Amino acid sequence: MKKYISLLNNTKSKVLITKKNLIDSFDGVIIYSENPYLIFSKLSQLFNLSALN
Fold first, then answer.
1. What is the pLDDT along the chain (53 residues), one digit of tens a residue?
2. Entry pTM
3. How many angstroms separate the CA atoms of 16 and 33, rounded?
4. What is the dihedral of CA 31, 36, 38, 42, to 10 degrees?
5. Sign of CA dihedral 40, 29, 11, 46
6. At a CB cut-off of 8 Å and minimum separation 6, what does 32 contact?
7. Spatial distance between the Cα atoms of 17 and 37, rounded to a whole number of angstroms
8. How far is CA 4 from CA 9, 40, 42, 48, in A?
């Protein structure tokens, strides 16, 4: 995770999903989770527009 922290300053992302309090300097929304991959999977299903057709 530490290798990606320096990239946060240049991202266009508005939401970050991460474990516990690993990040304290991000200008967007931070979602803390013990299982960030699971949360990403669930959120991507919610925003899957092809599933609406």
1. 677 777 887 888 889 898 876 666 788 898 999 999 999 999 988 887 666 65
2. 0.70
3. 11
4. 30
5. positive
6. 18, 19, 20, 21
7. 8
8. 10, 17, 22, 26
